[in-house]
Fold each of these.
Amino acid sequence: MISESFEKRDSKIKIIFMYIILGIVALVCLYPLLDVLKVALRPASRLFSTDLNLIPEDATLENFKTALFVRPYFVWLKNSLFVSVLSSIVGVGLSITAAYAFSRYRFTGRTAGLMSFLLTQIFPAPMTLLPMYVLLKNFGLIDTYAGGIIPYIATTVPFSVWVLKGYFDTIPKSFEESAYLDGANLAQILWSIMIPLTLPAIGVTLLNSFMAAWNEFVVANIVFTSESMQTLPIGIFTMTGAMSSDWGIYSAACILTAIPVILLFISMSKVMINGLTLGGVKE
Amino acid sequence: MIDRNKVTPYLLIAPAVLVLLFMVGYPLVYGINLSFTDMSIYSFLNPSYIGFENYTAIFTDPELYTTTLRTIIWTLINLIATVSSGFLFALILNRKLPYKNALRVLMMLPWAVPQYIAVLAWRNMFQTDFGTVDILLNKIGITGISWLGDPFWTFIACIITNIWLGVPFMMLVTLGALQSVPGELYEVGEIDGVKSWQKHWMITIPLIKPVMTPAIVISTVWTFNMVSVIYMMTSRTADNETQILVSRVYRDAFTYFNYGKAAAFSVIIFIILAIFSSSIIKAMKGGEGVYD
C-alpha cells in the first residue's frame, strides 16, 4: 500500500531527505507570519520582549478587537475585494484573447507587440506614477473604483499575456484544427478548448492579478483619497499613524488582512491541481 | 491555421493594447518629457526646460556607478536563488509524496501574504536583541550583527526577505510547467539509458523553457524594480549604501520631490534594464513553443 504512494524507484533515504527539505522550507515560509501573530497577541505593555514562545502567556485578543471595530475595517475589506476581483477578471479576460493572438497568428507587428508588452514592465513605477495621476485626474477618475481598477489591469496584463502565450505555445495546434474542421468558431475554440486546457495557467494569472491589486499600496494611496473608498493596505497604513504606530494593533490588522488571501490561496490551489491533472496537454 | 482573416489577431489584442496605451504609453512619453525639465515641488505648475542638465548631474555623480553595480548584484543573487530553489522544490513537489499538498500550501504563503505585511514582519524579526533572527543567532553564539544599523547587513536582510518573497512564484510556475511535460518522454529516456540528472538537463529543462523564459524575464524586471522591500526595510536609516537604482529614484521623487531629476534617472534605469533583460532573453534563446 505505502509503496504505491511514492515514486517506484525512490529509495527510503531519498524520500526522507525530500521530506526534510520540504519541512524546513515550509517552516521558514510559515514562521514570519507566526511572528506577526505573536506580536498581535501580546499586550501593548510587553512590546519589547525576547520571548520566543509563539503564544505569549498573557495572550489577549484586545488588539484584534480594536483593529476590527474602532476603525472601518469592513469598509476597506469590501473596497479591496471589489477592486481586486473586478480588475483580475477583466485583466485576465483581455490577456487570454491577446495571448491567443500572439501564440497562434503570425501578423505584422507581432514581435514588436510582444516586446513592448514586456517593456511596459521595465519602466520604473515611480516615473509613470505622476503622469498617470495627472491623466486619471483629467478623466475624473480620482477617488473612484475605476481609477484603481484601470491601472491595476495595466500592471498585470503584460505578465498574464506572456505566461498564457507560453502555455498556449505548448498546446498542439492539431486540437484546434480538428475543431475548425468540425465547424467551430474562434469564440467556441477559446472557450471550450484553449481555456479548459490552460486552466492551471489561467489560475496562476488570476491569482497573480488578484494579489497585485489586493496588496497594491502606491497607486491606491494617491487614487483612493476619501476614507470610504480606501482599500485595506491604505486603511491599515493610516492606522499606524492614527494610533502612534501601535505594533500590536497594526499586527492584528495585518493578520486579519492576510487570512482571506491565504484562504483564497488554499481553495484556489485545489482548482489549480485539478486543472493540472488534465491529460489533454500531453500529445 | 484555418482562420486566415488578417484582422482577427488585431481585434484580439486591441483591448489589452488600449489599456496599456492609456495607462503606460502616455505616462511614459510624458515622463520622458519631464526628464528635460526642472520640475520639483517648487516649480510644480510651471516647470521650464533645462535640456540635458538632469542627465549630466546624474552621470557626474560617482554614486551612480556603485549603485548600478549593487543593483546588478542584487538582481543576480535574487534571480539565481529563486530560480534554482524554485526548480528544486518544484521537482520534489512533482513526485508522488503523501501530504505534499499540505506542505505545498505552506510553501506558497510568502506569495499569499501582502508584501507590505511580509516586509514589516521581517523587519521586526531583524531587530537587534528583540528580533527572532538576532535571538536565534545569539543562542548559537553569533552576536553583534546590527542587521538594520549596518548598511551591508541591511542589504543582506533585504536580499533574504526578497528571496523569501520570490521563491513561491518561481516554484509554482515551474511546477505548472513540469506537469505539462509528457511522462512518456522520460520512459523513452530510460530506455536510452539516460541518467537521472541528465534526464532533467536533456528533457525537463528544454521542455519547460517556453513557459519559464517569460516568467524569469519578468521576475528579473520585478527584482530590478523592487522598491518596497528596500524602501520599507531602510526607511529609518535611508543609507545610500543599501539603495538600488529604483529605490533611489523613489527617494528622489517622493522624499526630495525632485521630479525632473527622478524622471531622468528613470530613463537611465529603463535603458540599463532593457539591455539587461534582452541579454537574458538571448541567453535563454527564445519564448517560442517547442511544438512549433
Amino acid sequence: MIRAAGDSALLINLGNEIDEEINERVLSIAKRIEEEKIEGVREVVPTYTSIYVYYDPLIVSYEKLKFLLKNYLKEKPKEIRGKIVEIPVIYGGKYGPDIEFVANYNGLSVDDVIEIHTKPLYRVYMLGFLPGFAYLGGMDERIATPRLKTPRTRVPAGSVGIAGKQTGWYAIESPGGWRIIGRTPIRTFNPNKKTPSIVLPGDFVKFKAIEDAKEYEEND
Amino acid sequence: MIEIIEAAGLSIQDLGREGYKKYGVPVGGVMDRYSAIITNYLVGNDRNAPLLEFFMGELKLKFLKDSIFAVGANSEVRLNGEKIEAWRAYIGREGDTLEISMPKNGVYGYISFQGGIKCKKIFGSCSTYPQAGWGKYLRGGDKVEIQYSSKKMLERRELPEELIPKYEKEQIIRVILGPQREHFTEEGIKTFLSNKYIVTEESNRMGYRLDGAKIEHSEKGADIISDAIPLGSIQVPENGKPIIMLADHQTTGGYAKIGVVISADIPKVAQTPIGGKLKFKEVSVEEAQRIWKRKWNTLQNIKRYLNGEIRALRVKINDESLLAFVEEL
C-alpha cells in the first residue's frame, strides 16, 4: 500500500478506481497527515486514489516515514465536508467555439448540451496538471467528445471544455486540446490569495448558464 | 542593475515553489540545483537566492552598477574582453561587459550576483514560469535589478577544480524503480535497464523525451488513474519511449511511471544535450538517500570552505588523488 516514488516522495495507494468513497478516504487521511506536521514532511498531495507525501530524506528516511504513516491508515477517516461552488458560464459564441461540434457529434442541440452540462453536481477529485486545474467527476456521457486532433496553442483562462468523458476549465491560459464550450468570467485561481483556488478536492461544482459577464466583472 | 545585451534561454530562477503542489502549482526553479547552489555560494548568497539560468549560451551582459558575480558553467568567460575563470567570484564594475560562451559540456549555466536578483515573488519564488504568466524569458534590452549587498568577497572565491561539475554526453543515471512497476513486464524493465536512451529535440524545461528500445507494458497498459509526479519521474506512454519529468513538469499525470531518477542524478539528466545518451541503473531507496546525503554534505563543505571555516587538502591515497575537506579542532 505504501511505496517509494523516488528518494524524496512516497505514495499511499488506497484503491484502483475513480470512486467517491476511495477519494474521500484519500482526502481525509491526507488532511490528517498534513495536520500532524511530521518532521521532514514537506508536502502532502492527495490524488484520485493515492496520497503523495513529499519529504526531506536528510531529515526522515523512507523506512521511518513509512512506519510513522502506517498508523494513520488504521484510523477511521473523518468526514470531509466539501462546499458547493457555483461556476457561471457563458456557453457558445466566441467563448465556446466548439459547442456546435459537441452537439453535432452527439446528435444533440446546443441547448441540450448546455442543459446536460449544467445539470450535475460535479465532484472535485483533485487539483493538478496546471495551476488550479480541477479534475471533476460526474459528467453525463451523452456529451462526451474526443479532444481536438491538433491542440490550440492558446486557450484563454476560464475556458470550460470537454475531453472524452471529462469536463473542466482552464484556470490559467495555456495550450490545450479540450473542446471549448464556454467560458467563466470569474477568476478561479489567484496566487495572491491564501487559498489560491476557489475549489478544493472534496468540493462540488455546479455550472450555471449566464448570458453576459457584467455582474461578475463588477464583483471581481 | 544588469542589462542584458544578448540572451540565450535566459531566465530568473531559484529553487522553485515548495508547498503548493496540491493546488497544481509546479515546483519549477533551476534545472541543475547542484551547479546553481554552488554558483550562489561562490558570491556568498543563500542557496535559494534568485539567479540567472541560461541555456546553451552565447550571452552578453553589461553591469550598470558594481556587483560581485560568479558564472557556474563550463564556458569561456570574458570580462571586458579579458578571459576570466568560471566557478570563481569577481567584481563587475559599472560599465563592464560580461561575455559567456556556449558551455563546453553541459547545457545549462548560472550567473549569480551577490545579494540575488530582485523580483516579484509568486508562491514564495522568483522562478520564471511563463506558462502561467509568472515572469518571462529575458531578451536583449531587458534589465534585472540586484538586491543590495555589502560587496565583500568571501574568504575564498574559487571552487576547487576537483569539484567543478563536468557533464559527459553519455551518462549513467541511477533510478529507483516504480511506483507503477506492475504496469511493465519483466522484459520491459529489462529493456529499460539495459539500453541506452537518446535525448530527443522534443525536450525542454518540463521534461526530456527519450528515444530508444521500446519498453513493453504489462496487460495493465500505459495509462493509470492520474496521480502525482515527483521530480525525475520517468513516464512511459503507449509508444514505449520514456519521458523524464524535470523542473517545470506538471504536478499530476496519467502515464505509468517506471522509475524515478535519484535526486543526486537529476543535474546529470538536465545537463545532457540533445543527442546525448542515458543509461539507467537501478538502486534502492536507501542507497539513493545515502548518495544524496553525501552530495548534500559536499555542498555544505563547499560553503564552509568558501567562508574560510574549513580547508581543502589534496591528498593521495593508494595513488589516487583526492580532495579532502579538513577542519582544525
Amino acid sequence: MTISTHTAPAVGGPTGSSIADAPLAARTRGLRKVYRNTVAVDHVDLDVPEGAVLGMLGPNGSGKTTTIRMLLGLVSPTAGTASLLGQEMPGGAARALPRVGALVEGPGFHPFLSGRENLRRSAAAEPLLTAGQISGAVEDALQRVSLAEAADRKYRGYSLGMKQRLGLASALLVPRELVVLDEPTNGLDPAGTREVRKVIAELHGAGSTVLVSSHLLAEVEATCTHVAVLHQGTVVAQGELADLLEAGNPTLLVSTPDAEQSVESLRDNRIPAQLAPGGVRVDLSAVSQPEVLRTLVRAGIDVYEARRERTGLEELFARLTENGLNDTEAADEPEIADDVWLDRLDAGQAAKQEAR
Amino acid sequence: MTATTAETPTPVASAARRAPLIRLLRAELRWVFRRPRTLVVLGLLALIPISVGISAAIADSSAGAAEGPPLFSMMAGNGLALSVGTLAITIMLLLPLVTAMSSADAIAGESAHGTLRGLLVAPVGRIRLLGVKAFGVACVALCAVLVIAVTGFLTGLVMSGPDGLFTISGTTLSIGAALGKLAVAVGWVAVQLWAVGAVALAISAYTEHPMLVVVGVLAGDILFAVLGGLSALSWLHPFLITESWSALPDVLRDPMPTEALTEGTLRAACYIIIGLSLAGARMLTKDG
C-alpha cells in the first residue's frame, strides 16, 4: 500500500475544510524543481494559512529548503506556481518580500564585521525601515535574540549558536507578516532552542504567520499549529497539528487482567484489538470508545482503566518516511484503520483538487 | 512600475517598496572599505610609486640621465611622470588584479558567504543589486588609481620640488597643468579598470568561487598580452583591451595626442557594456 498525494480520495474532513477556508499567507501548486538530472521537489501543493505556525517536517534532502527557496523567489521553479502574501513569486518579490523575514540555509554574514555591523548592513537593505529606524531596529533585534552583549564582537568569533541567533535577528528586523525559518534551531543548545520557541510563540501571538522547517519532530510538535510532512520532494501529509496527531490510529488502551479473553470477545464483535502490556490496545477508527467498553463489560471482563492513546507525530513521521511509505507492518495492523488514516491525510489534497 | 490604485484597502502592503538607493550605495561602500583586504591592498599600492621613485632616483644618479628608457629616467623626481609611469606599469597586471579581487568579493564572495540571498530576500532587486555592486567595484578601482597617482605626485614633489614637472616633449608644466594631465590619466585608467571590473563581475555572477574570478582575469590578461604580441593575429588586436594600455604615456606628451587614448576609452566602453550585460543576464536567472 502506498500513499500518493495526487490520487486522493474525495473524502472531506476537518483537515481539508479548515485549510480551504482560511486565507493563505503562502501557497504552492504543482511546484517542481529539477537540478540537472535530479528532481529536488515535485508536485508540492503547500498551504500556509494566515496566522498559523506551520512546521515543515521532513528528513534531510526531502525538499524543504528547495521549497522555501522557491517561495522566497531565490530559485525559479521548473514548473508550478508559488505565491507569497498573495504575490506570485518570483515576479512579485518586490511587493511581498519586504513583509517577509527569512532565515534560509543557515545564517549568512561577513566574518570581518561585528554582529551589529552585519545587522546594520542587512537593515540598510530593508525597504520598510526608514533611515532613522535602523539603529533602533538593530538594537531591538539583538535584544530579542539575547545577543546584545556579544554584538560588538567579530562574527568570525561567534559560536554556531550565536551565528544562528544573528540570522534569526535579521529575520526579525521589521515586524513581519510572514517569517520563514529554515532549521532555526540548528546548532543551538537547549536554552537557545527554548528561546527560538519563545520567539516563534511571540510572532504567533502578534499575528504573524510562521513557516518553520525542521527535521526534529519534537520541535514541530512543541511549536506548531499546522504541519506539512515532506518526503522525497513531495508533500505527503499536511493539516492542523491536532488533526494529524489524531490521524494516526486512534487507539484505546484498556487495562484488564483478562487480556486474551478481551481480545477474543472484541474480535468476535469485529472490533480490531491486540494484546498490549497490562491489557489490550483497541483500534478506535471504526468504533466509539463507549461501544468498546460496553462490549467488554457485557462479556464479563474486569476493566480497571481505559485510556485514549494519542498517536505521536513521531509515529506518523516514522511511518511516512522511514518505511518508505510502504506499510511493512500491515500484518500487525488492521487494514480498515489504515484506510481511514490515509483518507484523513489525503483530505487536504482532495480539497485542493476540487479547487483546481 | 508602482502604479498605486486610489482605493486599495492596504496600499502600503501591496505597493512595491524599495530601500533608498543612496542608503544601499553607502552600505556597500562601508562594507567594501571596512574589509581588511581592501585596505591592505590600497596601502601596498601606495608604496609602489614611492619605491619606484626611489629606485629610479638611485638608477638615475648612478648610471646618468642618458641611459635607460626615457620614461623611467624621467620618473626620477618628476611627480607627474612618476605617477603616470607607475600607472602605466601597474595597469598591465596589478591594477586589473585588484579590480578582479573586488569584483570577486562583490558577487561570488557574497554568494559563498551566504549573504547574497540575504540581500535578495530583503529584497534588493537583482539588477539593482548588480548596479550597487558595480558601483562598489568602480569605487575600489578609482581609489586604487588615485592612491597611486597621489602618492606618486607627492613623492615627486618631495624629491625635486614643483620645478621638475617637464613632459616627454620637453616642455615644463605648471602644477595646475600637471594636475590636469594627472586627472586625465587617472580618469582614463579608471575607465580601463571599470572595463576589467565589468567582465570580472560577469564571471563573478557565474560562479560561487571568488578565486575563479581572479584567476580568470589573470589568465585573460596574460592571454591578451600574448595574443597582442603575435603580429599574425593583427586582425584580432583591435578587440583586445590590453592593446589600449600602452597608450597611457601619451598623457605625458605636450600637446597630448588623443587618438589612441580615445580609441582605448571607446574599447573600454564596449567591454563595460558587454560585461555588465552578461552579468545582468546571469543575475536575473541566478539561484540565490
Amino acid sequence: MNWTWFHKLGSPKWFYEISGRWLPWFAVAAALLLGVGLVWGLAFAPPDYQQGNSFRIIYIHVPVAFLAQSCYVLLAVAGLVGLVWRMKLADIALQCAAPIGAWMTFIALVTGAIWGKPTWGTWWIWDARLTSMLILLFLYFGIIALGQAIANRDSAAKACAVLAIVGVVNIPIIKYSVEWWNSLHQPATFTLTEKPAMPMEMWLPMLVMVLGIYCFFAAVLLLRMRLEVLRREARSSWAKSEIKALVGAA
Amino acid sequence: MSSVFALLLARESRLLFRRPAELVNPLVFFAIVIALFPLAVGPESQLLQTLSPGLIWVAALLAVLLSLDGLFRSDFEDGSLEQWVVAPQPLPLLVLAKVLAHWLFSGLALVLLAPLLALMLGLPARCLPVLLLSLLLGTPILSLLGAVGAALIVGLKRGGLLLPLLILPLYIPVLILGSGALQAALQGLPATGHLLWLASLAMLAVTLLPFAIAAGLSISVGE
C-alpha cells in the first residue's frame, strides 16, 4: 500500500493547499443540506401522531447529539495519531475540534431541554442519556482546560491526547453505568444499520440533516485548522505570502 | 525487576511516613465532609440513612482526589522523575509501585475509617461488609485514575482546580457502582453484581492505567 498521502498529511503547507480546495465544497454542501433538511423537516414532514408538531425539534436535536458524540471519538483518534506518528496536524485537529464538540453537546442539551418541556413535562430530569451528555460536556471542558493550562504547545497537545484516549475508553463504561443507574429517555431514534422505526417521510429529512451537520462540522473544523496552521507557521515564507494575499484581498 | 518494585515501595512508604500530616489530611477532610451533611440537610436519622451510601462515596472520592494532587510533585521538583523516565526499568511498573504505596497508606486508611463514619450516619451494621468491600475495590481505581491527572498537570505551577475538572467525570462509573452496591445492601438486596463490576473495573484499571500515567509523566518531564 502506498502511504505517501499519509505522510503528506504531516506537511502543514500541503494541508493548507488541499484544505483550501475542499473547504468550499464542504461549506456549500453544508449550506444546501442543512437548508433543505431544515425546511423539509420543520415545514413539510408529517406531524407526529402523539407529539404533534413539537417533535420537529428532533431534526436539530438528534444530528447535533450525534455529532457531539462522534466528535469526542475524533478527538481520541487524532490524539492517538498525534502520539504515535508525531503528526502536528493531528494535534491541531484535536485542539480545534474540542470547542466545536463542546458547543454541539451544549446545543444538544438545550434542544433536549426545550423538547422535554412539552413531552415529558420537565425540561431537565436526571435520566441516563441526559446525564451522560452532561458528563460528555464536562469531559470536553476538561480537555479544553488542560489545553489552555499548559503553555508549551507540543506538551499541551500530547497531554490532551492522553486525556482524550483515557476518556474514550471510559465513555462506554460511563454510558452503561449511567444507563444502569436510571433511564427514561427513548432508545436511539436514528440508526443507519437498522430499519427505521419512523416512516420514510420523517426519516429522510433526518438523514439529510445528519449529513448536513457533518459537512458543517468538516467545514468549521477545516476553517479553524487552517487559521491555526497559519498562526503556527507564520514565520515560514509560504505562510507569509498566504497571509499577505489574504490581507491584500480584504 | 520485582526487586526494583519492592525497593520503590519501601522508599515511598518511608517518605510517606516522614510526612504524617500528608497522610492524615485526607482522612480529616473525609470526616469533615461527612460531618457537613447532617448540618446541611438536618439531623433526621431516617433521611441520613437513606443518603448515607451516596454521602460516603462522594466524600471518599473527593478525599482520594485531593490526596493525589501532590503525588508526583516532589519527585518532579527534585528530579527523581527524570531518573525514572530514563531508568532501564519500565516506567509503568515504577509508577504502579508509587501509586500502590500511596494507596496502601492513604486509601487503606480511608477504607478503615469509613465504617465508623457510616455508623454515625446511621448505616446498619449489616451493610458494613459491603461498604468495606466496595471501598476496597473502588479506591484503587480512584487512585489510579487520579494519578493520570496528577501526572498530566505535575509540571504546572497552578494546577489546583484543574485536577478535579479533568478527573471527576472519569470517576462517575466507580461512584455509581460503589454507592449502588451500598444502596442495594441497605435495601436488603444482593450487592454481588455491583461488586463484581467494581472488581472488573479494578482489574482494567490496574492493567491499563499505569501506561497512561507513564505517558503523562513522560510528557510532563519532557516539557
